[in-house]
Amino acid sequence: MEGSSIRERKESQNGSNGHSVGLISGVCLIVGTMIGSGIFISPKSVLLYSGAVGPCLIIWTACGVLATLGALCYAELGTMITKSGGEYSYFMEAYGPIVAYLYSWTTVMVLKPSSLAIITLSLAEYASTPFYLGCTPPILVTKCLSAAAILIIVTVNCFSVRLARYVQNFLTASKLFIILVIVVAGAVMLAQGKTENLTNTFDGASSSFGAIGLAFYNGLWAYDGWNQLNFITEELKDPYRNLPRAIVIGIPLVTVCYVLVNVAYFTVMTATDLLLSPAVAITFGDRALYPLSWIVPLFVTFSTFGAANGSCFTAGRVAYVSSREGHMLEILSFISLRRYTPSPALIFNGLLAICYIIPADINSLINYFSFGQWTFYGLAVLAVIVMRYTRKEHHRPVKVPIVIPVLMVLVSCYLVLAPIIDKPAMEYLYCTIFIFSGLIFYYPFVYRKVKWAHTFIAPITVHLQLLMEVVPPEKIE
Ligand code: ARG
To answer: Do the domain assignments include residue 4?
Structure first.
Protein backbone atom coordinates (compact mmCIF):
# COMPACT_ATOMS: atom_id res chain seq x y z
CA MET A 1 0.00 0.00 0.00
CA GLU A 2 1.32 3.52 -0.68
CA GLY A 3 1.39 4.06 3.01
CA SER A 4 2.25 0.79 4.66
CA SER A 5 5.47 -0.27 6.28
CA ILE A 6 6.53 -3.89 6.27
CA ARG A 7 5.49 -4.16 9.88
CA GLU A 8 2.05 -2.68 9.34
CA ARG A 9 1.57 -4.96 6.39
CA LYS A 10 2.49 -7.96 8.52
CA GLU A 11 0.05 -6.80 11.14
CA SER A 12 -2.72 -6.45 8.65
CA GLN A 13 -1.97 -9.88 7.24
CA ASN A 14 -2.00 -11.48 10.66
CA GLY A 15 -5.02 -9.50 11.71
CA SER A 16 -8.66 -10.55 11.26
CA ASN A 17 -8.34 -11.69 7.64
CA GLY A 18 -6.10 -9.10 6.06
CA HIS A 19 -8.88 -7.72 3.89
CA SER A 20 -9.18 -4.28 5.32
CA VAL A 21 -9.67 -2.06 2.28
CA GLY A 22 -13.24 -1.72 1.05
CA LEU A 23 -14.55 -0.23 -2.18
CA ILE A 24 -14.72 3.32 -0.85
CA SER A 25 -11.21 3.21 0.62
CA GLY A 26 -9.98 1.79 -2.69
CA VAL A 27 -11.52 4.67 -4.61
CA CYS A 28 -10.02 7.13 -2.12
CA LEU A 29 -6.60 5.55 -2.52
CA ILE A 30 -6.75 5.93 -6.31
CA VAL A 31 -8.00 9.51 -6.12
CA GLY A 32 -5.55 10.44 -3.39
CA THR A 33 -2.52 9.10 -5.26
CA MET A 34 -3.41 10.50 -8.64
CA ILE A 35 -4.21 14.07 -7.64
CA GLY A 36 -1.09 15.92 -6.63
CA SER A 37 1.03 18.33 -8.57
CA GLY A 38 0.00 17.62 -12.15
CA ILE A 39 -3.35 19.39 -12.30
CA PHE A 40 -1.66 22.59 -11.13
CA ILE A 41 1.42 22.38 -13.31
CA SER A 42 0.52 20.49 -16.51
CA PRO A 43 -2.38 22.60 -17.92
CA LYS A 44 0.12 25.08 -19.30
CA SER A 45 2.17 22.48 -21.19
CA VAL A 46 -0.88 20.55 -22.40
CA LEU A 47 -2.23 23.79 -23.87
CA LEU A 48 1.14 24.80 -25.28
CA TYR A 49 1.65 21.50 -27.13
CA SER A 50 -1.97 21.04 -28.22
CA GLY A 51 -2.25 24.61 -29.49
CA ALA A 52 -5.87 25.46 -28.59
CA VAL A 53 -8.50 25.12 -25.87
CA GLY A 54 -10.62 22.46 -27.63
CA PRO A 55 -7.84 19.92 -28.29
CA CYS A 56 -6.48 20.66 -24.84
CA LEU A 57 -9.74 19.58 -23.17
CA ILE A 58 -9.96 16.55 -25.46
CA ILE A 59 -6.45 15.50 -24.44
CA TRP A 60 -7.29 15.83 -20.73
CA THR A 61 -10.30 13.56 -21.27
CA ALA A 62 -8.37 11.10 -23.42
CA CYS A 63 -5.68 10.83 -20.74
CA GLY A 64 -8.39 9.80 -18.28
CA VAL A 65 -9.65 7.13 -20.69
CA LEU A 66 -6.11 5.80 -21.18
CA ALA A 67 -5.51 5.68 -17.44
CA THR A 68 -8.77 3.75 -16.94
CA LEU A 69 -8.01 1.23 -19.71
CA GLY A 70 -4.43 0.84 -18.46
CA ALA A 71 -5.67 0.23 -14.93
CA LEU A 72 -8.12 -2.44 -16.18
CA CYS A 73 -5.23 -4.31 -17.84
CA TYR A 74 -3.34 -4.00 -14.57
CA ALA A 75 -6.37 -5.44 -12.77
CA GLU A 76 -5.98 -8.61 -14.86
CA LEU A 77 -2.26 -8.77 -14.05
CA GLY A 78 -2.75 -8.02 -10.37
CA THR A 79 -5.42 -10.66 -9.79
CA MET A 80 -3.57 -13.27 -11.87
CA ILE A 81 -0.13 -12.78 -10.28
CA THR A 82 -0.76 -11.98 -6.66
CA LYS A 83 2.91 -11.92 -5.60
CA SER A 84 3.84 -8.51 -4.23
CA GLY A 85 6.13 -6.36 -6.31
CA GLY A 86 3.80 -5.04 -8.99
CA GLU A 87 5.35 -4.69 -12.43
CA TYR A 88 8.54 -6.38 -11.28
CA SER A 89 6.71 -9.67 -10.70
CA TYR A 90 4.74 -9.38 -13.95
CA PHE A 91 7.92 -8.81 -15.97
CA MET A 92 9.64 -11.69 -14.21
CA GLU A 93 6.76 -13.98 -15.16
CA ALA A 94 6.23 -12.75 -18.72
CA TYR A 95 9.73 -11.91 -19.96
CA GLY A 96 12.21 -13.28 -17.43
CA PRO A 97 14.81 -11.69 -15.19
CA ILE A 98 16.57 -9.26 -17.57
CA VAL A 99 13.51 -7.11 -18.26
CA ALA A 100 12.52 -7.27 -14.59
CA TYR A 101 16.01 -6.20 -13.61
CA LEU A 102 16.02 -3.28 -16.07
CA TYR A 103 12.67 -2.23 -14.70
CA SER A 104 13.87 -2.09 -11.12
CA TRP A 105 17.10 -0.38 -12.17
CA THR A 106 15.18 2.34 -14.06
CA THR A 107 12.60 2.73 -11.32
CA VAL A 108 15.11 3.09 -8.52
CA MET A 109 17.60 5.24 -10.45
CA VAL A 110 15.29 7.39 -12.61
CA LEU A 111 11.53 7.12 -12.24
CA LYS A 112 11.14 7.37 -8.46
CA PRO A 113 13.64 10.17 -7.88
CA SER A 114 12.57 12.16 -10.93
CA SER A 115 8.93 12.07 -9.87
CA LEU A 116 9.94 13.32 -6.42
CA ALA A 117 11.92 16.08 -8.15
CA ILE A 118 8.98 17.10 -10.37
CA ILE A 119 6.53 17.21 -7.49
CA THR A 120 8.80 19.25 -5.19
CA LEU A 121 9.68 21.66 -8.01
CA SER A 122 5.95 22.28 -8.51
CA LEU A 123 5.60 22.74 -4.77
CA ALA A 124 8.41 25.30 -4.80
CA GLU A 125 6.87 27.18 -7.70
CA TYR A 126 3.53 27.50 -5.92
CA ALA A 127 5.05 28.32 -2.55
CA SER A 128 7.25 31.09 -3.96
CA THR A 129 5.04 32.75 -6.60
CA PRO A 130 2.94 34.77 -4.09
CA PHE A 131 6.15 36.48 -2.98
CA TYR A 132 7.07 37.64 -6.48
CA LEU A 133 3.98 39.54 -7.57
CA GLY A 134 3.61 39.75 -11.31
CA CYS A 135 6.75 37.85 -12.24
CA THR A 136 8.22 34.36 -12.24
CA PRO A 137 10.27 33.52 -9.12
CA PRO A 138 14.06 33.21 -9.67
CA ILE A 139 15.17 29.70 -10.59
CA LEU A 140 17.64 29.57 -7.73
CA VAL A 141 14.86 30.21 -5.22
CA THR A 142 12.60 27.46 -6.56
CA LYS A 143 15.45 24.95 -6.75
CA CYS A 144 16.61 25.64 -3.18
CA LEU A 145 13.04 25.49 -1.89
CA SER A 146 12.44 22.21 -3.63
CA ALA A 147 15.67 20.73 -2.22
CA ALA A 148 14.56 21.88 1.23
CA ALA A 149 11.19 20.19 0.71
CA ILE A 150 12.95 16.93 -0.21
CA LEU A 151 15.08 17.11 2.93
CA ILE A 152 12.04 17.68 5.14
CA ILE A 153 10.02 14.90 3.53
CA VAL A 154 12.86 12.38 3.70
CA THR A 155 13.52 13.28 7.33
CA VAL A 156 9.85 12.96 8.32
CA ASN A 157 9.58 9.61 6.55
CA CYS A 158 12.79 8.25 8.06
CA PHE A 159 11.64 9.38 11.44
CA SER A 160 8.25 7.80 11.69
CA VAL A 161 5.74 5.92 9.59
CA ARG A 162 2.95 7.05 11.83
CA LEU A 163 3.83 10.72 11.59
CA ALA A 164 4.03 10.49 7.79
CA ARG A 165 0.65 8.74 7.73
CA TYR A 166 -0.93 11.30 9.98
CA VAL A 167 0.23 14.22 7.85
CA GLN A 168 -0.93 12.35 4.75
CA ASN A 169 -4.62 12.24 5.70
CA PHE A 170 -4.68 15.96 6.26
CA LEU A 171 -2.84 16.60 2.99
CA THR A 172 -5.18 14.38 0.96
CA ALA A 173 -8.17 16.22 2.35
CA SER A 174 -6.63 19.56 1.45
CA LYS A 175 -6.07 18.60 -2.19
CA LEU A 176 -9.68 17.59 -2.62
CA PHE A 177 -10.72 20.83 -0.98
CA ILE A 178 -8.77 23.06 -3.35
CA ILE A 179 -9.95 21.15 -6.45
CA LEU A 180 -13.52 21.60 -5.25
CA VAL A 181 -13.00 25.32 -4.64
CA ILE A 182 -11.63 25.81 -8.16
CA VAL A 183 -14.41 23.76 -9.80
CA VAL A 184 -17.19 25.55 -7.88
CA ALA A 185 -15.73 29.01 -8.52
CA GLY A 186 -15.41 28.16 -12.23
CA ALA A 187 -18.99 26.85 -12.36
CA VAL A 188 -20.30 30.04 -10.75
CA MET A 189 -18.47 32.18 -13.29
CA LEU A 190 -19.73 30.04 -16.15
CA ALA A 191 -23.26 30.39 -14.83
CA GLN A 192 -22.76 34.14 -14.81
CA GLY A 193 -22.13 33.89 -18.53
CA LYS A 194 -18.35 34.12 -18.74
CA THR A 195 -18.03 31.82 -21.72
CA GLU A 196 -16.13 33.97 -24.21
CA ASN A 197 -12.86 31.97 -23.89
CA LEU A 198 -14.73 28.79 -24.62
CA THR A 199 -15.80 29.73 -28.15
CA ASN A 200 -13.82 29.03 -31.34
CA THR A 201 -11.89 26.52 -29.34
CA PHE A 202 -10.15 24.85 -32.27
CA ASP A 203 -8.40 27.89 -33.75
CA GLY A 204 -4.65 27.27 -33.83
CA ALA A 205 -4.88 23.56 -32.95
CA SER A 206 -1.58 21.73 -33.33
CA SER A 207 -1.36 18.99 -35.91
CA SER A 208 2.17 17.92 -35.12
CA PHE A 209 2.52 14.24 -34.38
CA GLY A 210 5.21 14.72 -31.73
CA ALA A 211 3.69 17.81 -30.09
CA ILE A 212 0.45 15.93 -29.40
CA GLY A 213 2.56 13.17 -27.85
CA LEU A 214 4.23 15.71 -25.58
CA ALA A 215 0.82 17.15 -24.64
CA PHE A 216 -0.15 13.62 -23.59
CA TYR A 217 3.06 13.22 -21.56
CA ASN A 218 2.13 16.26 -19.52
CA GLY A 219 -1.53 15.33 -19.11
CA LEU A 220 -0.66 11.74 -18.19
CA TRP A 221 1.71 12.96 -15.51
CA ALA A 222 -1.32 14.37 -13.70
CA TYR A 223 -2.99 10.95 -13.98
CA ASP A 224 0.05 8.95 -12.93
CA GLY A 225 -0.62 6.72 -9.96
CA TRP A 226 -3.57 4.98 -11.69
CA ASN A 227 -1.92 1.60 -11.13
CA GLN A 228 -1.54 1.99 -7.36
CA LEU A 229 -4.41 -0.26 -6.39
CA ASN A 230 -2.48 -3.21 -7.80
CA PHE A 231 -0.06 -3.03 -4.94
CA ILE A 232 -2.75 -3.68 -2.37
CA THR A 233 -4.90 -6.34 -4.08
CA GLU A 234 -4.19 -8.63 -1.13
CA GLU A 235 -5.63 -6.12 1.29
CA LEU A 236 -8.80 -5.50 -0.70
CA LYS A 237 -12.11 -6.96 0.43
CA ASP A 238 -13.55 -9.12 -2.34
CA PRO A 239 -10.76 -8.00 -4.70
CA TYR A 240 -12.14 -9.58 -7.87
CA ARG A 241 -15.20 -7.39 -7.77
CA ASN A 242 -13.87 -4.37 -5.95
CA LEU A 243 -10.64 -3.90 -7.91
CA PRO A 244 -12.31 -3.28 -11.31
CA ARG A 245 -15.10 -1.36 -9.62
CA ALA A 246 -12.75 0.97 -7.76
CA ILE A 247 -10.96 1.60 -11.07
CA VAL A 248 -14.07 2.44 -13.07
CA ILE A 249 -15.33 4.72 -10.30
CA GLY A 250 -12.08 6.34 -9.16
CA ILE A 251 -10.33 7.20 -12.41
CA PRO A 252 -13.36 8.67 -14.23
CA LEU A 253 -14.01 10.71 -11.07
CA VAL A 254 -10.51 12.18 -11.30
CA THR A 255 -11.01 12.74 -15.04
CA VAL A 256 -14.18 14.73 -14.44
CA CYS A 257 -12.41 16.83 -11.79
CA TYR A 258 -9.44 17.52 -14.07
CA VAL A 259 -11.58 18.52 -17.05
CA LEU A 260 -13.73 20.78 -14.87
CA VAL A 261 -10.65 22.40 -13.33
CA ASN A 262 -9.37 23.15 -16.84
CA VAL A 263 -12.74 24.56 -17.87
CA ALA A 264 -12.60 26.73 -14.74
CA TYR A 265 -9.14 28.02 -15.70
CA PHE A 266 -10.41 28.88 -19.18
CA THR A 267 -13.42 30.78 -17.90
CA VAL A 268 -11.19 33.39 -16.30
CA MET A 269 -8.10 33.23 -18.56
CA THR A 270 -7.61 33.35 -22.29
CA ALA A 271 -5.21 30.79 -23.76
CA THR A 272 -2.51 33.48 -23.89
CA ASP A 273 -3.07 34.46 -20.24
CA LEU A 274 -2.75 30.84 -19.23
CA LEU A 275 0.49 30.37 -21.16
CA LEU A 276 1.97 33.51 -19.59
CA SER A 277 0.94 32.71 -16.03
CA PRO A 278 3.79 31.59 -13.77
CA ALA A 279 1.41 29.37 -11.76
CA VAL A 280 -2.03 28.86 -13.31
CA ALA A 281 -4.01 28.13 -10.17
CA ILE A 282 -2.66 31.27 -8.50
CA THR A 283 -3.69 33.44 -11.46
CA PHE A 284 -7.08 31.73 -11.29
CA GLY A 285 -7.36 32.52 -7.57
CA ASP A 286 -6.38 36.16 -8.08
CA ARG A 287 -9.10 36.63 -10.66
CA ALA A 288 -11.91 34.50 -9.32
CA LEU A 289 -11.52 34.30 -5.54
CA TYR A 290 -10.20 37.75 -4.68
CA PRO A 291 -10.12 38.53 -1.05
CA LEU A 292 -9.62 34.77 -0.50
CA SER A 293 -7.07 34.20 -3.25
CA TRP A 294 -4.35 33.31 -0.72
CA ILE A 295 -5.97 29.94 -0.11
CA VAL A 296 -4.87 28.73 -3.55
CA PRO A 297 -1.07 28.78 -3.11
CA LEU A 298 -1.46 27.53 0.45
CA PHE A 299 -3.58 24.52 -0.42
CA VAL A 300 -1.71 23.71 -3.62
CA THR A 301 1.45 23.63 -1.55
CA PHE A 302 -0.26 21.18 0.84
CA SER A 303 -1.45 19.08 -2.08
CA THR A 304 1.98 18.83 -3.70
CA PHE A 305 3.54 18.15 -0.31
CA GLY A 306 1.07 15.27 0.08
CA ALA A 307 1.98 13.91 -3.35
CA ALA A 308 5.70 14.07 -2.53
CA ASN A 309 5.12 12.39 0.81
CA GLY A 310 2.99 9.69 -0.83
CA SER A 311 5.63 8.96 -3.44
CA CYS A 312 8.20 8.48 -0.67
CA PHE A 313 6.10 5.76 0.93
CA THR A 314 6.75 3.50 -2.03
CA ALA A 315 10.45 4.23 -2.39
CA GLY A 316 11.55 1.14 -0.52
CA ARG A 317 9.15 -1.29 -2.13
CA VAL A 318 10.73 -1.91 -5.54
CA ALA A 319 14.16 -1.99 -3.97
CA TYR A 320 12.92 -4.54 -1.45
CA VAL A 321 11.34 -6.90 -3.96
CA SER A 322 14.21 -6.75 -6.43
CA SER A 323 16.97 -7.05 -3.87
CA ARG A 324 15.33 -10.25 -2.68
CA GLU A 325 16.14 -11.63 -6.14
CA GLY A 326 19.68 -10.22 -5.92
CA HIS A 327 18.80 -7.54 -8.48
CA MET A 328 19.51 -4.50 -6.38
CA LEU A 329 21.95 -3.45 -3.69
CA GLU A 330 20.81 -5.19 -0.54
CA ILE A 331 21.26 -2.17 1.67
CA LEU A 332 18.45 -0.35 -0.17
CA SER A 333 15.90 -2.83 1.12
CA PHE A 334 16.92 -2.58 4.76
CA ILE A 335 14.66 -1.23 7.48
CA SER A 336 15.54 0.95 10.44
CA LEU A 337 15.88 -1.20 13.52
CA ARG A 338 14.25 1.28 15.84
CA ARG A 339 11.85 3.16 13.63
CA TYR A 340 10.75 0.48 11.14
CA THR A 341 11.18 2.85 8.20
CA PRO A 342 13.06 2.00 4.97
CA SER A 343 15.57 4.78 5.59
CA PRO A 344 18.36 3.71 3.17
CA ALA A 345 15.95 3.66 0.21
CA LEU A 346 14.41 6.97 1.29
CA ILE A 347 17.75 8.72 1.64
CA PHE A 348 19.07 7.33 -1.66
CA ASN A 349 15.89 8.45 -3.43
CA GLY A 350 16.12 11.94 -1.92
CA LEU A 351 19.77 12.34 -2.88
CA LEU A 352 19.11 11.36 -6.49
CA ALA A 353 16.08 13.69 -6.62
CA ILE A 354 18.29 16.58 -5.54
CA CYS A 355 20.79 15.65 -8.28
CA TYR A 356 17.97 15.81 -10.85
CA ILE A 357 16.73 19.18 -9.65
CA ILE A 358 20.08 20.88 -10.21
CA PRO A 359 20.30 20.74 -14.02
CA ALA A 360 16.69 20.23 -15.10
CA ASP A 361 13.38 22.09 -15.19
CA ILE A 362 9.91 20.63 -14.54
CA ASN A 363 8.93 20.31 -18.15
CA SER A 364 11.96 18.36 -19.33
CA LEU A 365 11.81 16.16 -16.24
CA ILE A 366 8.16 15.34 -17.03
CA ASN A 367 9.10 14.47 -20.60
CA TYR A 368 11.88 12.08 -19.58
CA PHE A 369 9.82 10.60 -16.79
CA SER A 370 6.90 9.89 -19.12
CA PHE A 371 9.20 8.50 -21.81
CA GLY A 372 10.70 5.99 -19.38
CA GLN A 373 7.49 5.25 -17.53
CA TRP A 374 5.42 4.60 -20.65
CA THR A 375 8.05 2.23 -21.99
CA PHE A 376 7.36 0.05 -18.97
CA TYR A 377 3.58 0.60 -18.90
CA GLY A 378 3.65 -0.53 -22.54
CA LEU A 379 5.64 -3.64 -21.64
CA ALA A 380 3.23 -4.42 -18.79
CA VAL A 381 0.13 -4.28 -21.00
CA LEU A 382 1.99 -6.31 -23.63
CA ALA A 383 2.56 -8.87 -20.87
CA VAL A 384 -1.23 -9.29 -20.61
CA ILE A 385 -1.31 -10.39 -24.24
CA VAL A 386 1.88 -12.47 -24.05
CA MET A 387 0.69 -14.38 -21.00
CA ARG A 388 -2.65 -15.19 -22.63
CA TYR A 389 -0.50 -17.50 -24.79
CA THR A 390 2.43 -18.46 -22.59
CA ARG A 391 0.60 -18.82 -19.28
CA LYS A 392 -2.73 -20.26 -20.36
CA GLU A 393 -3.01 -22.26 -17.15
CA HIS A 394 -3.16 -19.23 -14.84
CA HIS A 395 -6.46 -18.48 -13.20
CA ARG A 396 -7.72 -15.07 -14.36
CA PRO A 397 -10.46 -13.80 -12.04
CA VAL A 398 -10.51 -10.51 -13.94
CA LYS A 399 -10.18 -10.96 -17.69
CA VAL A 400 -10.29 -7.89 -19.89
CA PRO A 401 -11.35 -8.06 -23.56
CA ILE A 402 -8.14 -8.50 -25.58
CA VAL A 403 -8.79 -5.29 -27.57
CA ILE A 404 -8.01 -3.22 -24.48
CA PRO A 405 -4.39 -4.38 -24.04
CA VAL A 406 -3.89 -4.33 -27.83
CA LEU A 407 -5.06 -0.73 -27.97
CA MET A 408 -2.92 0.20 -24.96
CA VAL A 409 0.19 -1.37 -26.51
CA LEU A 410 -0.36 0.71 -29.66
CA VAL A 411 -0.92 3.86 -27.60
CA SER A 412 2.25 3.24 -25.58
CA CYS A 413 4.26 2.75 -28.80
CA TYR A 414 2.92 6.05 -30.06
CA LEU A 415 3.65 7.84 -26.80
CA VAL A 416 7.20 6.55 -26.61
CA LEU A 417 8.09 6.96 -30.28
CA ALA A 418 6.18 10.05 -31.48
CA PRO A 419 8.21 12.70 -29.64
CA ILE A 420 11.47 11.08 -30.78
CA ILE A 421 10.47 10.69 -34.42
CA ASP A 422 9.08 14.20 -34.56
CA LYS A 423 12.03 15.94 -32.95
CA PRO A 424 14.93 13.59 -32.25
CA ALA A 425 16.45 15.13 -29.13
CA MET A 426 19.70 13.74 -27.75
CA GLU A 427 18.12 13.55 -24.31
CA TYR A 428 15.89 10.62 -25.26
CA LEU A 429 18.95 8.81 -26.52
CA TYR A 430 20.72 9.47 -23.21
CA CYS A 431 17.64 8.21 -21.40
CA THR A 432 17.62 4.99 -23.45
CA ILE A 433 21.36 4.50 -22.98
CA PHE A 434 20.90 5.01 -19.27
CA ILE A 435 18.15 2.37 -19.08
CA PHE A 436 20.33 -0.16 -20.90
CA SER A 437 23.48 0.79 -19.01
CA GLY A 438 21.94 -1.14 -16.12
CA LEU A 439 23.03 -4.24 -18.03
CA ILE A 440 26.68 -3.42 -17.32
CA PHE A 441 25.99 -4.29 -13.70
CA TYR A 442 23.66 -7.14 -14.52
CA TYR A 443 26.28 -9.36 -16.08
CA PRO A 444 28.96 -9.38 -13.34
CA PHE A 445 26.84 -8.74 -10.26
CA VAL A 446 23.60 -10.60 -10.95
CA TYR A 447 24.18 -13.16 -13.67
CA ARG A 448 27.70 -14.34 -12.88
CA LYS A 449 27.65 -13.25 -9.22
CA VAL A 450 31.42 -12.77 -9.40
CA LYS A 451 33.33 -13.12 -6.17
CA TRP A 452 35.19 -9.83 -6.27
CA ALA A 453 31.90 -7.96 -6.50
CA HIS A 454 30.80 -9.52 -3.25
CA THR A 455 34.10 -8.93 -1.45
CA PHE A 456 33.90 -5.32 -2.59
CA ILE A 457 30.28 -4.63 -1.58
CA ALA A 458 29.96 -6.66 1.63
CA PRO A 459 32.11 -4.41 3.87
CA ILE A 460 30.41 -1.27 2.54
CA THR A 461 27.00 -2.76 3.34
CA VAL A 462 28.13 -3.63 6.85
CA HIS A 463 29.48 -0.13 7.50
CA LEU A 464 26.34 1.54 6.23
CA GLN A 465 24.25 -0.86 8.28
CA LEU A 466 26.06 0.14 11.46
CA LEU A 467 25.92 3.81 10.59
CA MET A 468 22.20 3.88 9.88
CA GLU A 469 21.15 1.11 12.29
CA VAL A 470 19.27 -0.81 9.64
CA VAL A 471 18.64 -4.53 9.22
CA PRO A 472 17.13 -6.79 6.56
CA PRO A 473 13.31 -6.65 6.79
CA GLU A 474 12.99 -10.38 7.62
CA LYS A 475 14.86 -9.71 10.88
CA ILE A 476 12.11 -7.43 12.20
CA GLU A 477 9.37 -9.25 13.98
N1 ARG B 1 -0.22 12.23 -10.60
C2 ARG B 1 0.62 12.71 -9.54
C3 ARG B 1 0.73 14.21 -9.58
O4 ARG B 1 0.05 14.82 -10.35
C5 ARG B 1 2.00 12.10 -9.60
C6 ARG B 1 2.03 10.69 -9.15
C7 ARG B 1 3.41 10.15 -9.07
N8 ARG B 1 3.40 8.71 -9.06
C9 ARG B 1 3.16 7.92 -7.99
N10 ARG B 1 3.09 6.65 -8.19
N11 ARG B 1 3.03 8.37 -6.76
O12 ARG B 1 1.48 14.78 -8.82
So the answer is: no
